[in-house]
Amino acid sequence: MHIAFDINETLLDTAALNPLFEGMFGTSQMRQVWFLTLQEHWMTATLTDQFLPFGELATAALRQVAQQQGQSVSEAQQQALVEGLQTLPAHPDTLPALEWLSRQGHTLTALTNGSLTALQKQLQHAGLTGLFDAELSVEQVQRYKPAPQAYRLVMDHWGIDPGEMTMVAAHSWDVIGASHAGCLTGFIARPGKALDPEGFRPTWQDTDLESLTRQIVAATPEDR
């Protein structure tokens, strides 16, 4: 079975950035504002065919949020954000879920909107190195998720059809994009993440990654 995982928020806990945002803006709630602004930046870059590195978009979003608040951010603060993104801890259920899937012999792919270099640093810091059979970045296709080219990157890497791939993510736009590309989908409802109850329905969903992955394995034919 081929299962691809989003990284930030899905496997790694971005709440670890809260002290950084508290120090800059006086409240950790600005982290969510920053992340939504970052999403706007990468989706705009994809729609306008102007791919820019994730790190540049992350710091640009930080500067934009600061401007909205009538503040400014220093180069040191921007660098602290980049370094913070590369040293996020894994959610408590991440390692057990990945180790179980690996022991079962399933093919696991890390698919990130970040750079490949940053991904490798993230996995090493979070203790997840060696658990993935492939580590892929959208920089290889110059299109951010949820563009279909990002998901096809995984399919092309393994030589599989869309229906043979399951995309696991904590973002509605990610699972919707993967579904549009023909993939099966698993939504993990991390804190603050939810789907429209009257909208898109993923193939599977849960609040715990171990439970979600067991659902996927139990329901998916063994030859996938």
Automatic annotation (TrEMBL):
InterPro entries, per database record? 2-HAD, HAD-like_sf, HAD-SF_hydro_IA, HAD_sf, PGP-like_dom2, S-2-haloacid_dehalogenase
Keyword Membrane listed: no
Entry GO MF terms: (S)-2-haloacid dehalogenase activity
**Name of the top EC class for this enzyme:** hydrolase
Catalytic reaction annotation: an (S)-2-haloacid + H2O = a (2R)-2-hydroxycarboxylate + a halide anion + H(+)
Domain of life the protein comes from: Bacteria
Enzyme Commission number(s): 3.8.1.2
Question: Which key words are in the record?
Answer: Hydrolase
Its biological purpose: Catalyzes the hydrolytic dehalogenation of small (S)-2-haloalkanoic acids to yield the corresponding (R)-2-hydroxyalkanoic acids.
What's the family? Belongs to the HAD-like hydrolase superfamily. S-2-haloalkanoic acid dehalogenase family.
Name this protein carries in UniProt: (S)-2-haloacid dehalogenase
Which taxonomic lineage does the organism of this UniProt entry have?
Answer: Bacteria, Pseudomonadati, Pseudomonadota, Gammaproteobacteria, Oceanospirillales
